[in-house]
Amino acid sequence: MDIKRCVFVGVGGQGNLLASNLLGQAALDMGIPVVVSEIHGMAQRGGVVESAVLMGGAKSPIVSNGEADVVVSFEPLETLRILSRCSKKTLVITNAQPLPPFTVAVGQGEYPPVDRILEKIRMKVEKVIALHGNELAEKAGNVLSLNMVMLGALIGSGATPVTEEVMKKTIGKSTKKAFLESNLKAFDLGKEAGRKLAKN
Question: Fewer CB atoms < 10 Å away: N or C end of the chain?
Answer without folding.
Answer: C
